[in-house]
């Protein structure tokens, strides 16, 4: 069976191997470029929307919890951050089902629309001073919608890219997803850095914090438009043409691929904790716990994000050359050995040292984050790929990622030890090391249909 993708080269029919049908070849370069651009922009918009909340945590705490002391208000703000993650496993089931039954493109186009609308609505919520307890309740409701939407984005974009990528460059292509995630964080960090430098605390609390959320609507519409102009992946279209998709992808996932699912949940743990501690919680940690100025904290994180994006693509190439397992194991070992000393250096108060430490932590994290999208997508066959990725990624992030800022703040409060978040990261790295060690190498194997 042959087909075409627009004006590009023909898509060759699948061949057979001991592992089932493999990935079709012959997708044109123009198509792949459009796929990369759409995946980058769409994921960028989703995670800019989602990350702004984390960067504005201290301001949001003052707006929505003004009657609490600062640390209690911050805990309540991060509790709302964590609660929105609790809906993500449910979202993983729903988006996984849609993505494996209806198509990757359709799921991604809908998820970005929901996320952008929800984020825009956050900007419209009145403050606690205006409507009392209804303000945090409305914020909680919208955060839950955000969490539901985000649960389909990372997995879908990764599956989309891996299924379109050349067989020997799946790691590099999939690295676009964490790179675009970091780019969304970077824009959020730049905006917050600029606003905290220009606006007073009163201006930030009265109206300034709303500005980044207002950007969600136009950015989301642009991302959705680009995605709707693409065809779905060749392997999914082939399954659809054969009417060969399974009726209940999630049920098949738990029945036939539960070992891979457990391994994937464990492998994601370092990403879940590391990403939200190092790239989202860090400005709050530096300013609220170590006494570093707010503008300096955001600026240091911004520099770390820039270097993180560059390292991500290098990691993707390394995983294509040396294999997913070797790179993921290296990441876990480095975090086990270096995290506590690195956090100890943050307390020196020296801005240059803080920046260098954040760059180091970010580089270590890219060894995991840049490899994980291709690793997870390759673990599952086409029929349940979206579901397997979405369920494992969102379950681990719900339990350990979204709760990471809250747990880090709580551990510091309970132990009176500023290094508590570092030890939490070390524990996550140990579990990921075990999970990855028990999994199979996926970089050399063809993508399977079943």
From TrEMBL:
Q: Where in the cell is it found?
A: Cell membrane
Q: Transmembrane ranges?
A: 72-95, 107-125, 131-150, 171-195, 207-226, 261-282, 297-315, 327-345, 351-368, 389-416, 422-439
The membrane-topology field of this record reads: Multi-pass membrane protein
What InterPro entries would the database entry show? Answer: H+-coupled_symporters, MFS, MFS_dom, MFS_sugar_transport-like, MFS_trans_sf, Sugar_transporter_CS
Q: Which GO terms describe its cellular component?
A: plasma membrane
What are the GO MF terms of this UniProt record? Answer: symporter activity
Superkingdom in the source lineage: Bacteria
* Annotated family: Belongs to the major facilitator superfamily. Metabolite:H+ Symporter (MHS) family (TC 2.A.1.6) family.
Q: What is this protein called?
A: Putative proline/betaine transporter
Organism (species): Arthrobacter subterraneus
């Amino acid at each position: 069976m042959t087909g075409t993708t627009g004006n590009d080269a023909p898509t060759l029919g699948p061949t057979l191997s001991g592992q089932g049908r493999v990935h079709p070849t012959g997708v044109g370069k123009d198509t792949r470029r459009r796929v990369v651009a759409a995946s980058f922009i769409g994921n960028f918009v989703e995670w800019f929307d989602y990350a702004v909340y984390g960067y504005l945590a201290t301001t949001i705490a003052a707006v929505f919890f003004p009657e609490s002391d600062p640390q209690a208000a911050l805990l309540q703000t991060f509790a709302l951050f964590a609660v929105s993650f609790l809906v993500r496993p449910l979202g993983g089931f729903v988006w996984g089902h849609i993505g494996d039954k209806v198509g990757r493109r359709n799921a991604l186009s809908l998820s970005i629309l929901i996320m952008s609308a929800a984020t825009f609505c956050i900007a419209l919520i009145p403050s606690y001073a205006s409507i009392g307890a209804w303000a945090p309740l409305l914020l909680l409701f919208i955060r839950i919608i955000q969490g539901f939407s985000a649960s389909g984005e990372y997995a879908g974009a990764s599956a989309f890219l891996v299924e379109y990528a050349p067989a020997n460059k799946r790691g590099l292509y999939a690295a676009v997803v964490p790179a675009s995630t970091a780019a969304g964080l970077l824009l959020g960090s730049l905006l917050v850095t600029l606003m905290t430098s220009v606006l007073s605390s009163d201006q930030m609390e009265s109206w300034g914090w709303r500005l980044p959320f207002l950007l969600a609507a136009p950015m989301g519409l642009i991302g959705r438009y680009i995605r709707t102009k693409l065809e779905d992946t060749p392997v999914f279209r082939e399954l659809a043409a054969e009417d060969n998709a399974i009726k209940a992808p999630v049920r098949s996932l738990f029945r036939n691929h539960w070992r891979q699912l457990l391994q994937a949940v464990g492998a994601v743990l370092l990403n879940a904790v590391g990403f939200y501690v190092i790239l989202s919680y860090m400005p709050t940690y530096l300013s609220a716990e170590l006494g570093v100025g707010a503008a300096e904290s955001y600026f240091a994180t911004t520099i770390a994000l820039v270097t993180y994006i560059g390292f991500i693509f290098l990691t993707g190439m390394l995983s294509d050359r040396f294999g997913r397992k070797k790179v993921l194991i290296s990441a876990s070992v480095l975090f086990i050995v270096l995290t506590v000393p690195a956090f100890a250096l943050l307390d020196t108060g020296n801005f240059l040292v803080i920046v260098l430490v954040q760059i180091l932590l970010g580089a270590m994290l890219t060894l995991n984050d840049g490899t994980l999208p291709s690793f997870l997508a390759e673990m599952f066959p086409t029929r349940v790929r979206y579901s397997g990725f979405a369920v494992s990624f969102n379950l681990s992030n719900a339990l350990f990622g979204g709760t990471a800022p809250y747990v880090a703040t709580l551990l510091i409060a309970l132990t009176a030890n500023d290094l508590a978040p570092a030890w939490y990261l070390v524990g996550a790295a140990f579990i990921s090391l075990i999970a990855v060690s028990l999994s199979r190498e996926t970089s050399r194997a063809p993508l399977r249909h079943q």
